[in-house]
Amino acid sequence: MFADLHLHTAFSDGTYSPEELTGHAARHGFACVALTDHDTVEGCERMARACREANVEFLPASELTAEYRGTELHVIGYALDVNHPKLLSEMRRYQDVRQNRIKEMVERLNRMNVPLQEETVTAIANCKSPGRPHIARALIQIKVCKSLDEAFERFLKKGRPAWVPKFKVSADEAISLIHEAGGLAVFAHPGLVHHDSLIPDLVEAGLDGIECYHTKHPTTTVEHYREMAEEHDLLVTGGSDCHGMNKGQPLIGTIKLPYQHVEQLKERLPEDNPLRRPFVRNEAI
Ligand code: AMP
Ligand code: ZN
Ligand code: FE
Ligand code: FE
């Protein structure tokens, strides 16, 4: 039994609907999946329903963009109460920041004589939690760029001309918010952040786990973070970070996290979290 605990839908910067994504998960035979859209849990209700119908265990989650001493890092909150009032109000704040940032990035592009209209981006994004990949897709649509990579390299990545810094919640606050909403906090793809020295501080702030398995983690990186997880008594998680079609093939299916890691995660949930209960498969389906 395997899980993929890092997936995105069109409720943030993925391209699949929750139902399409669940279909892929079921075809790959996953026993459990988590939806980790950026700064939103909006897709979780539909994904939970689709998973129930497909006999796949589902963990509602979200990948929060946070910051620790000037370094951007992503913290995934797993098994969240998706109706938690403070979680929802904080996420609305992060979404406002994202929406305003899109406007500013389009303005910057326009000042460079790139004729991109905000409406083109919002039509592609069509969600409350837009991000740079939506601008990248719009730049491809108006034929200014040929690929997402080109859009990021020329305009969107940190330090490039259309890049706009973004307010980010501090990692400590993100971890606390996740705990308040009943969930567990996991440092996403640390291998892309290159700042292992902050892990002990995150542990001090209450971090529960490290995403050891990730599409962009080579085997040596996986081993390295498994050792760190053991050293700090952290959960081991992993996922594909699938955003939809990727160079002809979606990433879902490339990471198969052994289900024992899901069991360990559930055991660490607070007693009153209903997701602690074992998942009962409907054998009739
Ligand atoms: P944002 O949330 O607006 O800061 O955008 C970050 C997202 O952009 C990440 O979730 C990545 O999936 C995506 N991203 C970053 N670099 C690239 C790239 N070179 N090509 C495609 N997507 C990227
Ligand atoms: Zn993304
Ligand atoms: Fe991420
Ligand atoms: Fe992600």
Work out the helix count. Answer: 10
Helix content: 25-40%
Mean pLDDT: 96
Q: SSE string, helix = H, strand = E? A: EHEHEEHHHHEHEHEHEEH
Q: How many β strands by DSSP?
A: 9
| N-to-C span | 17 Å
Which of globular, elongated, flat, extended, rod-shaped describes the shape?
globular
Rg, please? 18 Å
Task: List unreliable stretches of 5+ residues.
Answer: none
Strand proportion, as a percent range, falls in 15-25%
The biggest sheet amounts to: 9 strands, mixed
Bound molecules: adenosine monophosphate, zinc ion, fe (iii) ion
Class from helix and strand fractions: alpha/beta
Description of the molecule:
By secondary structure, this protein is α/β, with parallel strands linked by helices. Helix 4 packs across helix 5 and helix 5 packs across helix 6. The longest helix is centred in the middle third of the chain and has 27 residues. The site of one fe (iii) ion has 4 residues, from loops.
Summarize the structure.
The chain has 285 residues and is α/β, with parallel strands linked by helices.
Record the SSE blueprint:
Blueprint: E1 2-4, H1 18-27, E2 32-35, H2 44-54, E3 57-68, E4 71-78, H3 85-111, H4 118-125, H5 132-141, H6 148-156, E5 169-170, H7 171-180, E6 184-187, H8 199-204, E7 209-214, H9 219-231, E8 235-239, E9 257-258, H10 260-268
Parallel strand pairs: 1-2, 2-3, 3-5, 6-7, 7-8
Antiparallel strand pairs: 1-9, 3-4, 4-6
Helix pairs in contact: 1-2, 4-5, 5-6
The chain binds adenosine monophosphate, zinc ion and fe (iii) ion (FE) (2 copies).
